[in-house]
Amino acid sequence: MPSTASTTTTPDDTTDEQPRRRRWLRLPSFGVQVLIGLVLGVALGLLARSLGGTEADPNALTTTLSTIGSTFVQLLLAIVPPLVFLAIVASVANLAAVTNAARLAGQTLLWFAITALVSVGIGIGLGLLTNPGLRSSADASAAKAPSSSGSWLDFLQGVVPANVLGLTASAGDDGPQLSFSVLQIIVLAIAVGVAVLRTGDKAEPFMGFVRSALAIVQKLLWWVIRLAPIGTVGLLGRAVATYGWDGLAPLGVFVIDVYVGIALVIFVLYPVLLKAHGLSVRRFFAGAWPAIQLGFVSRSSVGTMPMTERVTERNLGVPRSYTSFAVPLGSTTKMDGCAAVYPALAAIFVAQFFGVDLGITDYLLIALVSVVGSAATAGLTGATVMLTLTLSTLGLPLEGVGLLLAIDPILDMGRTAVNVAGQALVPTIVAAREGILDREVYDSSRGAGATSADDEAEAARPAHAEEPEQDADATDSTSSAPTPAGV
Fold first, then answer.
1. Which of 393, 399, 317 is nearest to 361 (CA)?
2. For residue 53, what is the DSSP state?
3. Can you tell me the distance from the alpha carbon of 345 to that of 383, in angstroms, rounded to the nearest whole number?
4. What are phi and psi of 377, to 5 degrees?
5. Within a 10 A sphere around the Cβ of 473, how many other Cβ atoms?
6. Radius of gyration of the chain measured on its C-alpha atoms
7. pLDDT value at position 249?
8. Average pLDDT over residues 215-226
9. CB neighbour list of residue 174: distance below 8 Å, 6 or more residues apart
10. Which of 202, 301, 346, 446 falls between 20 and 30 A from 401, CA-CA?
Protein backbone atom coordinates (compact mmCIF):
# COMPACT_ATOMS: atom_id res chain seq x y z
CA MET A 1 0.00 0.00 0.00
CA PRO A 2 2.72 2.54 0.82
CA SER A 3 4.40 1.84 -2.50
CA THR A 4 1.13 2.35 -4.35
CA ALA A 5 0.60 5.71 -2.70
CA SER A 6 4.05 6.84 -3.64
CA THR A 7 3.60 5.94 -7.29
CA THR A 8 0.28 7.78 -7.55
CA THR A 9 1.65 11.04 -6.24
CA THR A 10 4.63 11.16 -8.58
CA PRO A 11 2.64 11.79 -11.80
CA ASP A 12 0.70 14.59 -10.10
CA ASP A 13 3.91 16.25 -9.02
CA THR A 14 5.30 15.93 -12.55
CA THR A 15 2.10 17.37 -14.03
CA ASP A 16 2.35 20.36 -11.69
CA GLU A 17 5.99 20.89 -12.60
CA GLN A 18 5.45 20.99 -16.38
CA PRO A 19 3.17 24.09 -16.45
CA ARG A 20 5.53 25.73 -13.97
CA ARG A 21 8.48 25.12 -16.29
CA ARG A 22 6.50 26.45 -19.27
CA ARG A 23 5.71 29.62 -17.34
CA TRP A 24 9.39 30.14 -16.66
CA LEU A 25 10.27 29.56 -20.34
CA ARG A 26 7.52 31.82 -21.71
CA LEU A 27 8.65 35.17 -23.11
CA PRO A 28 7.65 38.35 -21.24
CA SER A 29 4.54 40.18 -22.39
CA PHE A 30 4.80 42.46 -25.38
CA GLY A 31 4.65 45.55 -23.17
CA VAL A 32 7.53 44.31 -21.05
CA GLN A 33 9.51 43.50 -24.19
CA VAL A 34 9.07 47.07 -25.43
CA LEU A 35 10.13 48.48 -22.05
CA ILE A 36 13.23 46.29 -22.16
CA GLY A 37 13.87 47.65 -25.66
CA LEU A 38 13.59 51.21 -24.36
CA VAL A 39 16.15 50.58 -21.64
CA LEU A 40 18.54 48.80 -24.02
CA GLY A 41 18.10 51.55 -26.61
CA VAL A 42 19.09 54.28 -24.15
CA ALA A 43 22.02 52.25 -22.84
CA LEU A 44 23.35 51.37 -26.30
CA GLY A 45 22.76 54.94 -27.49
CA LEU A 46 24.86 56.33 -24.65
CA LEU A 47 27.54 53.75 -25.37
CA ALA A 48 27.54 54.62 -29.07
CA ARG A 49 27.79 58.31 -28.24
CA SER A 50 30.79 57.68 -25.98
CA LEU A 51 32.56 55.87 -28.83
CA GLY A 52 32.72 59.09 -30.85
CA GLY A 53 31.95 59.66 -34.50
CA THR A 54 29.92 62.30 -36.27
CA GLU A 55 26.61 62.35 -38.10
CA ALA A 56 28.49 62.27 -41.40
CA ASP A 57 30.89 59.55 -40.21
CA PRO A 58 29.17 57.54 -37.45
CA ASN A 59 30.79 54.69 -35.56
CA ALA A 60 29.84 51.06 -36.15
CA LEU A 61 27.40 50.84 -33.22
CA THR A 62 25.53 53.98 -34.28
CA THR A 63 25.32 52.65 -37.83
CA THR A 64 23.96 49.33 -36.57
CA LEU A 65 21.33 51.02 -34.40
CA SER A 66 20.34 53.29 -37.29
CA THR A 67 19.99 50.32 -39.64
CA ILE A 68 17.83 48.38 -37.20
CA GLY A 69 15.54 51.35 -36.55
CA SER A 70 15.21 52.43 -40.18
CA THR A 71 14.51 48.85 -41.29
CA PHE A 72 11.66 48.55 -38.79
CA VAL A 73 10.13 51.84 -39.95
CA GLN A 74 10.54 50.87 -43.62
CA LEU A 75 8.71 47.60 -42.99
CA LEU A 76 5.84 49.51 -41.40
CA LEU A 77 5.67 52.07 -44.19
CA ALA A 78 5.79 49.37 -46.89
CA ILE A 79 2.44 48.09 -45.65
CA VAL A 80 0.84 51.54 -45.29
CA PRO A 81 -0.58 51.99 -48.85
CA PRO A 82 -2.55 48.72 -49.05
CA LEU A 83 -3.52 48.91 -45.38
CA VAL A 84 -4.96 52.43 -45.63
CA PHE A 85 -6.78 51.77 -48.89
CA LEU A 86 -8.35 48.48 -47.83
CA ALA A 87 -9.22 49.66 -44.31
CA ILE A 88 -10.90 52.88 -45.48
CA VAL A 89 -12.86 51.12 -48.26
CA ALA A 90 -14.09 48.49 -45.79
CA SER A 91 -14.86 51.13 -43.17
CA VAL A 92 -16.99 53.26 -45.50
CA ALA A 93 -18.75 50.19 -46.90
CA ASN A 94 -19.46 48.98 -43.36
CA LEU A 95 -21.47 52.11 -42.65
CA ALA A 96 -24.37 50.55 -44.54
CA ALA A 97 -24.85 48.12 -41.64
CA VAL A 98 -24.51 50.74 -38.90
CA THR A 99 -27.61 52.28 -37.36
CA ASN A 100 -27.51 56.09 -37.41
CA ALA A 101 -24.31 55.97 -39.47
CA ALA A 102 -24.53 59.63 -40.49
CA ARG A 103 -25.03 60.72 -36.88
CA LEU A 104 -22.08 58.63 -35.70
CA ALA A 105 -19.86 60.05 -38.45
CA GLY A 106 -20.91 63.60 -37.58
CA GLN A 107 -20.31 63.05 -33.86
CA THR A 108 -16.89 61.56 -34.59
CA LEU A 109 -15.78 64.53 -36.69
CA LEU A 110 -17.22 66.96 -34.12
CA TRP A 111 -15.20 65.46 -31.28
CA PHE A 112 -12.13 65.31 -33.47
CA ALA A 113 -12.51 69.08 -33.88
CA ILE A 114 -13.30 69.77 -30.20
CA THR A 115 -10.25 67.92 -28.88
CA ALA A 116 -8.06 69.50 -31.58
CA LEU A 117 -9.21 73.01 -30.61
CA VAL A 118 -8.52 72.46 -26.93
CA SER A 119 -5.15 70.88 -27.73
CA VAL A 120 -4.07 73.78 -29.92
CA GLY A 121 -5.18 76.14 -27.17
CA ILE A 122 -2.87 74.31 -24.77
CA GLY A 123 -0.01 74.67 -27.25
CA ILE A 124 -0.62 78.40 -27.73
CA GLY A 125 -0.90 78.96 -23.97
CA LEU A 126 2.40 77.20 -23.29
CA GLY A 127 4.14 79.13 -26.06
CA LEU A 128 2.98 82.50 -24.72
CA LEU A 129 3.85 81.52 -21.16
CA THR A 130 7.39 80.22 -21.77
CA ASN A 131 8.55 82.15 -24.90
CA PRO A 132 10.62 79.25 -26.33
CA GLY A 133 11.87 81.25 -29.33
CA LEU A 134 13.38 83.95 -27.09
CA ARG A 135 15.14 81.37 -24.90
CA SER A 136 16.75 79.40 -27.71
CA SER A 137 20.48 79.33 -28.26
CA ALA A 138 20.17 77.58 -31.64
CA ASP A 139 22.45 78.77 -34.43
CA ALA A 140 20.47 80.74 -37.00
CA SER A 141 22.73 79.36 -39.73
CA ALA A 142 20.95 76.01 -39.29
CA ALA A 143 17.74 77.57 -40.53
CA LYS A 144 16.75 76.47 -44.01
CA ALA A 145 13.53 76.26 -45.93
CA PRO A 146 12.07 72.86 -46.82
CA SER A 147 12.13 71.68 -50.41
CA SER A 148 8.35 72.08 -50.75
CA SER A 149 6.49 75.24 -49.85
CA GLY A 150 3.69 73.53 -47.96
CA SER A 151 1.11 76.11 -49.03
CA TRP A 152 -2.64 75.54 -49.09
CA LEU A 153 -2.47 75.35 -52.89
CA ASP A 154 0.09 72.56 -52.67
CA PHE A 155 -2.08 70.84 -50.09
CA LEU A 156 -5.22 71.04 -52.23
CA GLN A 157 -3.36 69.90 -55.33
CA GLY A 158 -1.97 66.99 -53.35
CA VAL A 159 -5.48 65.81 -52.48
CA VAL A 160 -6.21 64.80 -56.08
CA PRO A 161 -4.67 61.39 -56.85
CA ALA A 162 -2.13 61.49 -59.66
CA ASN A 163 -2.93 57.84 -60.47
CA VAL A 164 -5.05 55.02 -59.13
CA LEU A 165 -2.33 53.95 -56.67
CA GLY A 166 -1.36 57.44 -55.50
CA LEU A 167 2.27 56.74 -56.41
CA THR A 168 4.81 59.29 -57.58
CA ALA A 169 8.25 58.71 -59.09
CA SER A 170 11.33 60.83 -58.46
CA ALA A 171 15.00 60.69 -59.34
CA GLY A 172 17.23 59.68 -56.45
CA ASP A 173 20.93 59.15 -55.92
CA ASP A 174 20.44 55.42 -56.41
CA GLY A 175 18.11 55.72 -59.40
CA PRO A 176 14.35 56.26 -59.73
CA GLN A 177 12.41 56.08 -56.46
CA LEU A 178 8.71 55.57 -55.83
CA SER A 179 6.82 57.37 -53.08
CA PHE A 180 3.18 57.64 -52.14
CA SER A 181 0.76 60.17 -50.68
CA VAL A 182 -1.40 58.76 -47.90
CA LEU A 183 -3.80 61.68 -48.31
CA GLN A 184 -4.37 60.77 -51.97
CA ILE A 185 -4.91 57.13 -51.01
CA ILE A 186 -7.49 58.21 -48.39
CA VAL A 187 -9.41 60.32 -50.92
CA LEU A 188 -9.37 57.48 -53.44
CA ALA A 189 -10.43 54.90 -50.83
CA ILE A 190 -13.34 57.05 -49.62
CA ALA A 191 -14.53 57.46 -53.21
CA VAL A 192 -14.34 53.69 -53.79
CA GLY A 193 -16.16 53.02 -50.52
CA VAL A 194 -19.00 55.39 -51.43
CA ALA A 195 -19.20 53.76 -54.88
CA VAL A 196 -19.54 50.37 -53.17
CA LEU A 197 -22.43 51.68 -51.08
CA ARG A 198 -24.18 53.06 -54.14
CA THR A 199 -23.61 49.89 -56.17
CA GLY A 200 -25.31 47.64 -53.62
CA ASP A 201 -25.38 43.86 -53.91
CA LYS A 202 -23.39 43.82 -57.13
CA ALA A 203 -20.36 45.07 -55.18
CA GLU A 204 -20.43 42.21 -52.66
CA PRO A 205 -17.86 40.06 -54.55
CA PHE A 206 -15.51 43.03 -54.58
CA MET A 207 -16.03 43.55 -50.83
CA GLY A 208 -15.30 39.88 -50.24
CA PHE A 209 -11.95 40.39 -51.97
CA VAL A 210 -11.30 43.58 -49.95
CA ARG A 211 -11.97 41.84 -46.63
CA SER A 212 -9.76 38.90 -47.55
CA ALA A 213 -6.95 41.15 -48.76
CA LEU A 214 -7.25 43.26 -45.60
CA ALA A 215 -6.92 40.14 -43.44
CA ILE A 216 -3.72 39.19 -45.29
CA VAL A 217 -2.24 42.69 -45.00
CA GLN A 218 -3.09 42.87 -41.31
CA LYS A 219 -1.43 39.52 -40.69
CA LEU A 220 1.71 40.81 -42.39
CA LEU A 221 1.54 43.93 -40.26
CA TRP A 222 1.19 41.91 -37.05
CA TRP A 223 4.40 40.09 -37.96
CA VAL A 224 6.14 43.45 -38.31
CA ILE A 225 4.64 44.70 -35.04
CA ARG A 226 6.14 41.71 -33.24
CA LEU A 227 9.52 43.20 -34.17
CA ALA A 228 8.71 46.42 -32.30
CA PRO A 229 10.90 45.64 -29.26
CA ILE A 230 13.91 45.19 -31.57
CA GLY A 231 12.95 48.29 -33.54
CA THR A 232 12.73 50.21 -30.26
CA VAL A 233 16.37 49.45 -29.49
CA GLY A 234 17.45 50.80 -32.88
CA LEU A 235 15.19 53.87 -33.00
CA LEU A 236 15.83 55.10 -29.47
CA GLY A 237 19.48 54.12 -29.52
CA ARG A 238 20.11 56.06 -32.72
CA ALA A 239 18.25 59.10 -31.34
CA VAL A 240 20.34 59.13 -28.15
CA ALA A 241 23.58 58.52 -30.05
CA THR A 242 22.89 61.19 -32.68
CA TYR A 243 21.42 64.00 -30.60
CA GLY A 244 22.16 63.55 -26.91
CA TRP A 245 21.73 66.57 -24.71
CA ASP A 246 24.12 68.60 -26.86
CA GLY A 247 21.63 68.47 -29.72
CA LEU A 248 18.60 69.16 -27.53
CA ALA A 249 20.07 71.87 -25.28
CA PRO A 250 19.79 74.81 -27.72
CA LEU A 251 16.08 74.00 -28.12
CA GLY A 252 15.58 72.71 -24.59
CA VAL A 253 12.68 75.00 -23.67
CA PHE A 254 10.85 74.13 -26.89
CA VAL A 255 11.34 70.37 -26.34
CA ILE A 256 10.09 70.66 -22.75
CA ASP A 257 7.11 72.71 -23.92
CA VAL A 258 6.12 70.07 -26.47
CA TYR A 259 6.24 67.24 -23.94
CA VAL A 260 4.46 69.30 -21.26
CA GLY A 261 1.75 70.09 -23.82
CA ILE A 262 1.46 66.42 -24.75
CA ALA A 263 1.22 65.49 -21.05
CA LEU A 264 -1.52 68.07 -20.45
CA VAL A 265 -3.56 66.70 -23.36
CA ILE A 266 -3.22 63.02 -22.53
CA PHE A 267 -3.27 63.23 -18.72
CA VAL A 268 -5.56 66.23 -18.13
CA LEU A 269 -7.79 66.88 -21.15
CA TYR A 270 -8.57 63.25 -21.94
CA PRO A 271 -9.31 62.26 -18.31
CA VAL A 272 -11.62 65.28 -17.95
CA LEU A 273 -13.56 64.18 -21.05
CA LEU A 274 -13.73 60.60 -19.79
CA LYS A 275 -14.99 61.67 -16.37
CA ALA A 276 -17.54 63.99 -17.99
CA HIS A 277 -19.00 60.95 -19.76
CA GLY A 278 -18.97 58.75 -16.66
CA LEU A 279 -16.06 56.59 -17.80
CA SER A 280 -13.19 55.29 -15.69
CA VAL A 281 -9.88 56.96 -16.54
CA ARG A 282 -7.88 54.02 -15.23
CA ARG A 283 -9.84 51.53 -17.34
CA PHE A 284 -9.34 53.61 -20.46
CA PHE A 285 -5.57 53.82 -20.13
CA ALA A 286 -5.30 50.17 -19.11
CA GLY A 287 -7.18 49.19 -22.24
CA ALA A 288 -5.56 51.64 -24.67
CA TRP A 289 -2.00 51.32 -23.33
CA PRO A 290 -0.75 48.66 -25.79
CA ALA A 291 -1.63 50.93 -28.73
CA ILE A 292 -0.25 54.08 -27.06
CA GLN A 293 3.01 52.28 -26.31
CA LEU A 294 3.34 50.97 -29.86
CA GLY A 295 2.61 54.44 -31.26
CA PHE A 296 5.42 55.89 -29.15
CA VAL A 297 7.87 53.33 -30.50
CA SER A 298 6.81 53.20 -34.15
CA ARG A 299 6.07 56.93 -34.60
CA SER A 300 3.31 55.95 -37.05
CA SER A 301 -0.41 56.27 -36.34
CA VAL A 302 -1.21 54.30 -39.48
CA GLY A 303 1.21 51.53 -38.56
CA THR A 304 -0.40 51.35 -35.11
CA MET A 305 -3.95 51.35 -36.54
CA PRO A 306 -4.66 47.58 -36.22
CA MET A 307 -3.58 47.64 -32.57
CA THR A 308 -5.64 50.79 -31.90
CA GLU A 309 -8.67 49.22 -33.54
CA ARG A 310 -8.26 46.01 -31.57
CA VAL A 311 -7.92 47.60 -28.12
CA THR A 312 -10.77 50.03 -28.84
CA GLU A 313 -13.08 47.14 -29.63
CA ARG A 314 -11.87 44.40 -27.28
CA ASN A 315 -10.66 46.40 -24.28
CA LEU A 316 -12.87 49.49 -24.39
CA GLY A 317 -16.13 47.94 -25.61
CA VAL A 318 -16.74 50.01 -28.75
CA PRO A 319 -18.79 48.03 -31.35
CA ARG A 320 -16.72 46.64 -34.20
CA SER A 321 -19.01 48.13 -36.85
CA TYR A 322 -18.29 51.64 -35.52
CA THR A 323 -14.66 51.00 -34.58
CA SER A 324 -13.85 49.88 -38.12
CA PHE A 325 -14.92 53.30 -39.36
CA ALA A 326 -13.75 55.66 -36.61
CA VAL A 327 -10.26 54.28 -35.93
CA PRO A 328 -9.01 54.19 -39.56
CA LEU A 329 -10.42 57.69 -40.06
CA GLY A 330 -8.76 58.89 -36.86
CA SER A 331 -5.46 57.23 -37.72
CA THR A 332 -5.18 59.46 -40.77
CA THR A 333 -6.81 62.70 -39.56
CA LYS A 334 -6.95 62.77 -35.72
CA MET A 335 -3.60 64.28 -34.68
CA ASP A 336 -3.72 66.19 -31.39
CA GLY A 337 0.06 65.90 -31.11
CA CYS A 338 1.28 66.44 -34.68
CA ALA A 339 -1.46 68.80 -35.83
CA ALA A 340 -2.41 70.75 -32.70
CA VAL A 341 0.10 71.05 -29.84
CA TYR A 342 3.23 70.87 -31.99
CA PRO A 343 2.40 73.32 -34.82
CA ALA A 344 1.03 75.86 -32.34
CA LEU A 345 4.22 75.80 -30.28
CA ALA A 346 6.41 75.64 -33.39
CA ALA A 347 4.72 78.66 -34.97
CA ILE A 348 5.22 80.71 -31.81
CA PHE A 349 8.84 79.53 -31.57
CA VAL A 350 9.60 80.49 -35.18
CA ALA A 351 7.88 83.87 -34.83
CA GLN A 352 9.83 84.72 -31.69
CA PHE A 353 13.11 83.40 -33.08
CA PHE A 354 12.85 85.62 -36.18
CA GLY A 355 11.34 88.58 -34.32
CA VAL A 356 7.86 88.46 -35.88
CA ASP A 357 4.95 89.68 -33.74
CA LEU A 358 1.77 87.58 -33.79
CA GLY A 359 -1.69 89.01 -33.20
CA ILE A 360 -5.01 87.53 -32.20
CA THR A 361 -5.84 86.86 -35.86
CA ASP A 362 -2.69 84.79 -36.22
CA TYR A 363 -3.59 82.65 -33.22
CA LEU A 364 -7.06 82.08 -34.65
CA LEU A 365 -5.43 81.02 -37.93
CA ILE A 366 -3.27 78.53 -36.04
CA ALA A 367 -6.43 77.00 -34.56
CA LEU A 368 -8.12 76.92 -37.97
CA VAL A 369 -5.16 75.22 -39.64
CA SER A 370 -4.95 72.67 -36.83
CA VAL A 371 -8.59 71.61 -37.28
CA VAL A 372 -8.92 71.83 -41.07
CA GLY A 373 -5.41 70.87 -42.14
CA SER A 374 -4.77 67.95 -39.82
CA ALA A 375 -5.35 65.52 -42.69
CA ALA A 376 -2.12 66.83 -44.22
CA THR A 377 -0.13 64.80 -41.69
CA ALA A 378 -1.89 61.65 -42.97
CA GLY A 379 -0.72 59.42 -40.13
CA LEU A 380 2.90 59.15 -41.25
CA THR A 381 5.93 59.78 -39.11
CA GLY A 382 6.85 63.42 -38.72
CA ALA A 383 4.78 66.62 -38.92
CA THR A 384 6.90 68.67 -41.33
CA VAL A 385 4.02 69.04 -43.79
CA MET A 386 1.73 70.36 -41.05
CA LEU A 387 4.41 72.73 -39.79
CA THR A 388 5.14 74.19 -43.24
CA LEU A 389 1.39 74.51 -43.85
CA THR A 390 1.00 76.48 -40.61
CA LEU A 391 4.02 78.70 -41.19
CA SER A 392 3.02 79.50 -44.78
CA THR A 393 -0.52 80.36 -43.68
CA LEU A 394 0.84 82.82 -41.10
CA GLY A 395 3.47 84.18 -43.47
CA LEU A 396 6.30 83.11 -41.15
CA PRO A 397 9.79 82.20 -42.45
CA LEU A 398 9.85 78.60 -43.63
CA GLU A 399 13.54 78.53 -42.73
CA GLY A 400 12.35 77.81 -39.19
CA VAL A 401 11.59 74.27 -40.28
CA GLY A 402 15.30 73.53 -40.55
CA LEU A 403 15.84 74.53 -36.93
CA LEU A 404 13.32 72.01 -35.64
CA LEU A 405 13.89 69.21 -38.11
CA ALA A 406 17.01 67.90 -36.34
CA ILE A 407 15.11 67.07 -33.13
CA ASP A 408 11.93 65.91 -34.87
CA PRO A 409 12.39 62.16 -34.11
CA ILE A 410 12.65 62.87 -30.38
CA LEU A 411 9.45 64.93 -30.46
CA ASP A 412 7.62 62.59 -32.81
CA MET A 413 7.59 59.75 -30.29
CA GLY A 414 5.50 61.74 -27.83
CA ARG A 415 3.37 63.32 -30.55
CA THR A 416 2.39 59.95 -32.00
CA ALA A 417 1.59 58.53 -28.56
CA VAL A 418 -0.95 61.29 -27.89
CA ASN A 419 -2.30 60.93 -31.43
CA VAL A 420 -3.03 57.25 -30.84
CA ALA A 421 -4.57 57.92 -27.43
CA GLY A 422 -6.95 60.42 -29.03
CA GLN A 423 -7.80 57.97 -31.80
CA ALA A 424 -9.01 55.50 -29.17
CA LEU A 425 -10.61 58.18 -26.97
CA VAL A 426 -13.03 59.75 -29.46
CA PRO A 427 -14.73 56.49 -30.56
CA THR A 428 -15.09 55.55 -26.90
CA ILE A 429 -16.71 58.88 -26.00
CA VAL A 430 -19.01 58.88 -29.02
CA ALA A 431 -20.06 55.28 -28.33
CA ALA A 432 -20.84 56.22 -24.72
CA ARG A 433 -22.86 59.27 -25.81
CA GLU A 434 -24.84 57.22 -28.33
CA GLY A 435 -25.52 54.40 -25.87
CA ILE A 436 -23.70 51.72 -27.90
CA LEU A 437 -20.67 51.29 -25.63
CA ASP A 438 -20.45 47.86 -24.00
CA ARG A 439 -19.96 49.01 -20.41
CA GLU A 440 -19.45 45.47 -19.18
CA VAL A 441 -16.38 45.15 -21.41
CA TYR A 442 -15.16 48.66 -20.59
CA ASP A 443 -15.52 48.21 -16.83
CA SER A 444 -14.14 44.67 -16.77
CA SER A 445 -10.69 43.88 -15.45
CA ARG A 446 -9.44 42.59 -18.82
CA GLY A 447 -7.54 45.79 -19.56
CA ALA A 448 -4.39 45.42 -21.60
CA GLY A 449 -4.53 41.69 -21.09
CA ALA A 450 -7.29 41.46 -23.69
CA THR A 451 -4.63 41.61 -26.35
CA SER A 452 -3.36 38.22 -25.28
CA ALA A 453 -5.78 36.72 -27.80
CA ASP A 454 -3.83 38.16 -30.69
CA ASP A 455 -2.07 35.06 -31.90
CA GLU A 456 -1.59 34.68 -35.63
CA ALA A 457 -4.93 32.99 -36.20
CA GLU A 458 -6.72 35.74 -34.30
CA ALA A 459 -4.74 38.52 -35.95
CA ALA A 460 -5.55 37.18 -39.36
CA ARG A 461 -9.31 37.49 -38.99
CA PRO A 462 -10.85 40.40 -40.93
CA ALA A 463 -11.06 43.35 -38.57
CA HIS A 464 -13.88 44.75 -40.67
CA ALA A 465 -15.92 41.58 -40.78
CA GLU A 466 -19.63 41.69 -40.18
CA GLU A 467 -20.85 42.21 -36.61
CA PRO A 468 -22.31 38.70 -36.12
CA GLU A 469 -18.78 37.23 -36.40
CA GLN A 470 -17.84 38.93 -33.17
CA ASP A 471 -19.42 36.28 -30.95
CA ALA A 472 -17.61 33.49 -32.77
CA ASP A 473 -14.32 35.30 -32.51
CA ALA A 474 -14.86 35.89 -28.83
CA THR A 475 -15.37 32.16 -28.37
CA ASP A 476 -12.27 31.35 -30.39
CA SER A 477 -10.16 33.77 -28.38
CA THR A 478 -10.97 31.99 -25.15
CA SER A 479 -9.97 28.62 -26.51
CA SER A 480 -6.82 29.58 -28.37
CA ALA A 481 -3.43 29.03 -26.83
CA PRO A 482 -2.07 32.02 -24.91
CA THR A 483 0.64 34.10 -26.51
CA PRO A 484 2.64 37.09 -25.31
CA ALA A 485 0.24 39.94 -24.54
CA GLY A 486 0.25 43.22 -26.31
CA VAL A 487 0.65 42.38 -29.99
1. 393
2. B
3. 13
4. -75, -30
5. 17
6. 24
7. 66
8. 86
9. none
10. 301
Lowest mean pLDDT of 76-90, 155-169, 335-349, 472-486, name the range. Answer: 472-486
* pTM for the model: 0.76
CA terminus-to-terminus distance, the chain: 52
Top CATH class of 100-185+248-479 equals mainly alpha
- Phi, psi torsion values for 402, nearest 5 degrees: -65, -30
> Confidence band (pLDDT; 50, 70, 90) for 418?
very high
Q: Which amino acid is at 182?
A: V
Nearest to 462 by CA among 292, 331, 317, 320: 320
HSE-CB at 480 with a 13 A cutoff on CA atoms is 19
Distance CA 448, CA 46 (A): 31
| Rounded Cα distance, 425 and 13, in Å | 48
Decide: 179 and 424 in contact? Cβ < 8 Å: no
The answer on pLDDT for 276 being more than 90 is yes
| In the chain, where the domains are located | 100-185+248-479
Closest CA to 319 of 407, 235, 428, 221: 428
Q: What is the average pLDDT across 66-70?
A: 86
Fill in the amino acid letter for 309: E
Using DSSP's 3-state secondary structure scheme, residue 176 falls into: strand
* Beta strand spans in 102-234 (E): 167-172, 175-180
| Helix H or strand E encompassing 449 | none
b vs e for 147-159, b when ≥16 Cβ sit within 10 Å of the residue's Cβ? eeebeeeebeebe
Specify whether the CB–CB gap between 136 and 348 falls below 8 A.
Answer: no
Separation in Å, CA 23 to CA 229, 430, 454, 456, 485: 21, 40, 19, 20, 14
The whole-number average pLDDT for the span 183-191 is 81
DSSP SS3 for 484:
coil
Q: Write b or e for each residue in 367-401: b if 16 or more Cβ atoms lie within 10 A of its Cβ, otherwise e.
A: bebbbebbbbbbbbbbbbbbbbbbbbbbebbbbbb
